[in-house]
Amino acid sequence: MTTLFRKPVLQAALLALCTTALSALPAMAQDPSPPPTQDQAGPPNGGHRNPGQREEHQIEFLTKKLNLTPDQVTQVKAIDDASRTQMMALHQDTTTPQADKRAKMMDIHKASQDKIRAVLTDDQKTKYDALQAQMRERRESRESGQGAPPPPPPQ
User: Fold this and answer.
1) pTM score, two decimals?
2) In terms of residue numbers, what domain contains 62?
3) What does UniProt give as the signal peptide span (predicted)?
4) 109 belongs to a structural domain
């Protein structure tokens, strides 16, 4: 029973995190300071990215891994913006029950992925699908390992 409860809760938490990330983008766009440049894969000192940095990182990640053209980058950003707008509207909707909101947010996310996939070439689609599978595996391994102590460091 615990496993059945954990998965939807984690999915809802992930969805809420993505929604928060997408909703903060307009505020971040008004910040005139340039984003910090960094060659590492993650934020410094193991910290967390703010929502604007997460979306920017996602675009940079896809651009690098899929070798997106400038036109594709523009299209992916537009898809992300439209998805964020829909998520924000749904988040602010007080008439929709929470369980329905989660399902609708998952639908918006899936539609966004499908639209991004439609922008890609056949080779990029193969790479995109592989990246999605890797992320799914990581998420599932985190979910199944939740509550377990971390493995000991190698010696």
Assistant:
1) 0.59
2) 53-144
3) 1-29
4) yes
